[in-house]
């Protein structure tokens, strides 16, 4: 069926590319895109880097349209409910939208500081959207006496590096043993720690913020740490991860919760009984799906390339052009911190071994490969991305671990334990 009404809820990268794929696959009916932000789809990766340093204005991050959409845009209006029996979506302005096919791409939002009173202090920021980046950029340009970043995941590390690029004093606090240790393992996390200390970041690992305190005017002035010490600060960036936007689906009968929306291998959403609804697909951060490269383990990914690939797959699926094929795109991400670019293929989660395969950790240019039960499952490069395509092929082929031998610039291939901290989260 090439006509009818297709609705995309979530007007960001996955939603935009999904809508374009619908059109390219021959869908000629009515197309509506719904977004809770007032902006057309924009690029998020620059928001924690170039948009903070002033190299790129937050409003200059609009994504290009790669295919004519001929669509109605309903921006600045959140979807608040889904009636699958009537095939209608309820919007925050009281309107409803009928649909014949629906793409859910509502993504995720930044996790707030858990104490609402403290989170409301002036000078407390989170970073997820364009308006967040614009607000934080203005605060940084005002010259804070010290920036405190809580959380040393990718966003926290990128923000800390951006602050140092602006020559601002910055303290980075994380309860883990080292930055990114939950994702890359402690040996690599220690390298990331050394990188940030070399940038001039005041890094405090194995440390928790107990509370944030404000002055009489309601502006943050310090953070009290778990050991009783404090950090004087007038600008705090809370970087505690993301929350998937699934609350609006409560009561819809879909299997949706904090971990995302459950999907089958093709990308159709599942109800609470595990049955697919073939009129609805999900894509991007919000979709939890069984990845064939990882024995069908459900995963939800928050990476740029994944949002593009899964959005396009979901668009073809809803247009009837995907033949129910499983979505099996190789996970990949990148991060820029200081002068170092970190890139990855595959998923490190569950790795039981790792090797520094190429380059030298001491020099800061290397490739580390992760294995699980004798098979290559992921590779991460620090300024050595030329090796990643070869490792991606081996991961896809379920090649044995350890990986490539006899390559140029080969390291010792000593097998190490990744030593992931407990309560580790997927990349």
From TrEMBL:
InterPro entries: FAD-oxidoreductase/Apoptosis, FAD/NAD-bd_sf, FAD/NAD-binding_dom, FAD/NAD-linked_Rdtase_dimer_sf, Reductase_C. Residues 333-403 form the Reductase C-terminal domain. The keyword Oxidoreductase applies. Keywords: FAD, Flavoprotein, Oxidoreductase. Gene3D superfamilies: 3.30.390.30, FAD/NAD(P)-binding domain. Residues 6-311 form the FAD/NAD(P)-binding domain. The keyword Zinc does not apply. Its cofactor is FAD. PANTHER family: APOPTOSIS-INDUCING FACTOR 1, RIESKE DOMAIN-CONTAINING PROTEIN-RELATED. This is NAD(P)/FAD-dependent oxidoreductase. It comes from Methylobacterium marchantiae.
